[in-house]
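To close the section, here is one more complete example, presented without commentary so you can practise reading it yourself. The ligand is zinc ion.
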Amino acid sequence: MSATKTTRTSAEREAQAELTKTPPTSVFDLGPGTDSAEIGTQIYELIAELYPICRSITGNGFRKTMSLLQKQIPLTVHEVPTGTQVFDWTVPREWNIRDAYVKNSRGERVIDFQRSNLHVLNYSVPISRKMPLAELKEHLFTLPDRPDWVPYRTSYYKENWGFCLSHNQLQKLPEGEYEVCIDSSLENGSLSYGEYFLAGESTDEILISCHSCHPSLCNDNLSGVSIAALLAKSLAGASRRYSYRFLFIPGTIGSITWLSRNEEAARRIRHGLVLACLGDRGGMSYKRSRRGNAEIDRAVVQVLQHSGNAFAVRDFSPYGYDERQYCSQAFDLAVGCISRTHHGKFPEYHTSEDNLNFVSPASLGDSFSKILAVLGVLEENRVYVNQSPKGEPQLGKRGLYRNIGGHVDAEAREMAMLWVLNQSDGKHSLLDIAERSGIVFDQLQRAARDLEEHGLLKKQT
Ligand code: ZN
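Output:
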């Protein structure tokens, strides 16, 4: 860890102190108590703030993103030097860009990085010279099927330069000589990533990871980044059974780098979610972990099933976001990927149309609430033991049956208690009971709490 530099200002330390002053509440209670519309607006505003920055897998755009997140949470920023071996990969040279353009013969910028950072092939090496259109065209990328949109393209591991533009614009470029300039640098430096650890009662961890390396793209990248930051902020003030680790990393190389430097910490991860594409107007979707039936996989399905909204669940495949690395063979962590519309399944994916109009505060708030509910299930998924297992205990004499005033859902509540009592033999968790009974987890958890208060149930230690 000697190569690690830590960036944390006194303002951030004060912000942390402020967060910990918040009176503790249960993580589970945060769900219903959190106003989804209000949090959705906050997430959207953070996306709007991060949107203009030209990010990449390394460089100052990524660092600036981390420093803006530090206004929300006291994130630690690690710097890993170029050339560091991380499993089978090597931390690449650091890329930075100041300006880029293509000028026509009249000296007008016909393609201009200052108007959109998507116009430059991400990781372009520097260039400054004149060339005819035919030569320039070999370095231009467009989307003929979507002629008004600008694609997002990268060339991280193969040296190249290029520009991205709309197909219509390309077709309007007249023959002639063009001045091409990319004022970038690709030099020894470091790879940055952000990490925020929240200790809980247990050293067992829940991992929340998001790739943070895309430039001006909202759904793919910034929705996950902003939801993760505000989740971290919310959980900081809650009482937590689990410890939480938030990672803001460049895709692929970032998770590989983290895993290679934290093999021991990785073993403490019990559950995890990769957050991506959580702001579009489609329904929720979930990709299971490699294990397929891990507690996280079941907790997500439990929440989505009872949400009343359409959703899709897919099995693991070794393609996608950083779950690929967390679920690589030697780690096989219980990490799934939660999204709204699955990446690559919306035409705006990796184009200029994945912008601030494509994501909505309502969708962002809804995604946030559902993820929080999933964490609530994990926090409260306990195994209990019925303390009166011979026949049903008499609930009426304890005030638990029917004669409870004000409970409109008395019948559902009683059914939940009967299921919890019957199944709590030290072998079945609340999530097992939820799956078998079809009763929403929340209701079973409340029943368990009531029964525990009346001495009829004990948490298994
Ligand atoms: Zn992407």
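Once you have examined the tokens, check your reading against these statements. The two ends are 36 Å apart (CA to CA). The longest helix spans residues 361-380.
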